[in-house]
# Entry
Amino acid sequence: MYRFLLSRQWVILTLVALALVPTMVELGFWQFHRHYNRVAQNTLIADNLNAKPVPVETLTSPGHSVPRADYWRRVTATGTFDTAHEVVVRRRTNADDRVGMHVLTPLVLKDGRVLLVNRGWVPAATDQSAYPDVPPAPKGEVTVTGRLKADETTGASGIKDLRGLPDRQVMLIDSAQQAKLTGAEVLGGYLELTDPAAPNGSPEQIPAPDHDSIGAHMAYAVQWWLFAAGVPVGWWILVRREKQDQEAARAAGPAEGPESPEPAAAAVS
# Structure
């Protein structure tokens, strides 16, 4: 009755269906885990942004790698900006997706150690090899507040750390790299400045990370699982249709042959 399933065409179709089901189930779980991770990250960001600011020295030190649990923690620091060792970070975008540079200014703390402060975004100079027009940092002792971030790496950011850049230009914010350049003890990670705000809005402050949207990962997960459930259903529908077609063909019997030619007319005597 179902011997047609042993045909080459049906064996291939069945194997493809068997391969699709676990693949689609796995894709569904992949999207589900992405949804779960996004929700967990949003919770972490919200909690850290709402936490009371703490002195930066309590969360990091020279050579320290900022753990994910401390990303976006609000921290404070008091010191004096060292504009002589200020650098800009290339290929950075602002809230309007304009490409420019971030201004990275060392803040010398009271104990002599240094905290890297990302003061915000400025447009790049017309000549990419030229240093952009950067508004000066506040003079004298200042207390800053901002979000703690980890050192950037090529693996995490996807940004290649190019060599041979123009003077005072870098690709990544790396405390170890800046420690070598300045010879100072630099705290691990850096601070995204939120307060005090720059006069006239320049450098342009980096917006807070999005922690409201969760994307469509859960919808994609459900979609993949529905596809997985639909494969065996579709396979069975095709099997039933093939069976019905074959039964109908057998019930119709052998096809009739062509009509016999009419006998030739009698010869005229």
